Amino acid sequence: MQDMNKAEVLATVSASAPRRMMGIVVLAALGGLLIYAGLAQPPATLGWQLFLLGAGVITLYLTERMRRASVVTLELTRTGLRDSEGQVLATLDQIETVNRGVFAFKPSNGFVLTTRDAQPRNWNPGLWWRVGRRVGVGGVTPAAQTKFMAETIQTLLDERRQNRG
Fold first, then answer.
1. 135 within 8 A of 121, measured Cβ to Cβ
2. pLDDT at 52 over 90
């Protein structure tokens, strides 16, 4: 872990300020509208009103999570991908493939890494997610930064394959 914190950073990805603000404003507006709809013109049944209020509160909670999560920067080193707080998303020796195709199940302006082994689930809204063997990077990030990072990871993987074979 200390080796990864001292390693040279090859590429970084951080949230784009306009996209970050747009995402936060849209989520906050949705949460506010759901709560407003549940209070100002409540549905005929209590169940639907509770659903609207609950969905609004959850949306506002996710808005705050996105606001906090999107200030983090992702950093690629020769040992792997981490965030600026030191959390390792995937080590380079675990990464098998990089997929940034049009029809890939990936975040907006991003890419998906497939790892050898399943990793613990985690999610930083608007920046990255990890489920099973997949790590998605993107969301409120600039396309140029994520494209460069994906190409750099692919280059590192190709170098590793050449050294083995």
1. no
2. yes
